[in-house]
Amino acid sequence: MLRTTLTALCLFFWLAPTCLPGQNQPFFSLQPADSLHKPRLWAGVGTATVLYGSALVILHRNWVSDGSTSSFHTADDLGDWNQMDKMGHGFLAYNESRWLYAGARWAGIRPNAAAWTGFAGGQVLMATLEVFDGLSTPGGFSWSDMGANLLGSGLFVSQQIGWHEQRISLKLSAWPKDYPDDRIYPVSPAGSDGSTTLQDRSDDIYGTGLVSLFLKNYNANTVWVSVNPRSFFPQRATWLPKWLNVAVGVGAENLFVGQGYEWKSNINCDGPDCDVYRLDPDLYPRTRQFYLSFDIDLTRLPLRNRFLRLLAGTLNIIKIPAPALELTNRGDVRFHALHF
Fold first, then answer.
1. Phi and psi (nearest 5°) for 225?
2. Which of 135, 181, 308, 336 is the most exposed place for a label (fewest CB within 10 A)?
3. Using alpha carbons only, how large is the chain's radius of gyration in Å?
4. In 59-87, which positions are buried (b, 16+ CB within 10 angstroms) versus exposed (e)?
5. pLDDT digits over 247-258, tens only?
6. 33-57: per-residue pLDDT in tens?
């Protein structure tokens, strides 16, 4: 999907004239074409159109079916979720641009044009999601989300054009959280017999399953900036393995509402009869976590098999589990023998 989407963008953004003339090369080969491969390009145009259009229909139906659509509006959510959602936007935009660039090179698009196509494609994909947020209730189109998207794709294109490689990568790790099973009772209205648990609250706002764990669970996610030291000093740091990275991570815990510690049992409820829950900030303080760890750049492993290299590039979004030092904004310092 990503490869074919990118070849379509070569036409959509009038980048096709910057591509090289066609050549005779097997269509199904994993080897990138060194000149424009018209069958790959046109197959990409058709496939990308169908997939992108289908995604728009599915998203629209999901918004309409749950009654969450409204007129287009904006929202200022910069202070929400300890900015973990912004980190996620940057992470997604960066890696979408990286994948799309790889697809463009496979189709024979010149390196600089492919880099800008990856940038444009990442922005289009993320902006589409943001437009649907702008039509949702609650929610709204967020300019800070768009800024995070721009920074993510910008990190990719600036490195690809300036260094012709990715020395700094954005990665993600996640691990399921265990919550106390104590019942939480409403602070209002008086006499309400409703109750919930932190696990129920987490499932309600973050969802369940592997996809939700990695893409939306801000209590379980760590977003990493993974840096390859040797690429900055190729002649002086020959003692360092080419694949060894140093990673700085950002995470959070005790986030059960965008801001503060209070929430309603039903977000659409409005009135004195709504169950309102409140956490004790002394027991469950909203906490920022900062990590220092090692990582592996899978794209720099000495793999000869082209399929394995493709697989490594795809999986390079995941931070490899490793020992880590943690520092929180509350002054806590912890060492993790293995953090993921």
1. -105, 110
2. 181
3. 23
4. eeeebeeeebeeeeeebebeebbbbbbbb
5. 999 999 999 999
6. 788 888 887 776 677 778 778 877 7
Higher pLDDT, residue 71 or 110:
110
Residue type, 202: S
Q: Which position has the higher pLDDT, 211 or 310?
A: 310
- The answer to whether 293 and 324 are in contact (CB under 8 A) is yes
pLDDT on residue 24: 55
The C-alpha angle with vertex 75 and arms to 73 and 79, in degrees rounded to 5, equals 175
Cα 274–chain centre separation? 34
| CA count, 13 A, side-chain hemisphere, 98 | 26
Q: For residue 51, count CB atoms less than 10 angstroms from its CB and return exposed for 0-12, middle for 13-18, buried for 19 or more.
A: middle
DSSP string of 153-194, one letter each residue: HHHHHHHHHHTSS-SEEEEEEE-PPP-----B--SBSTT---
Does residue 205 sit in helix, strand or coil? helix
Taking alpha carbons only, the member of 226, 10, 227 closest to residue 118 is 10
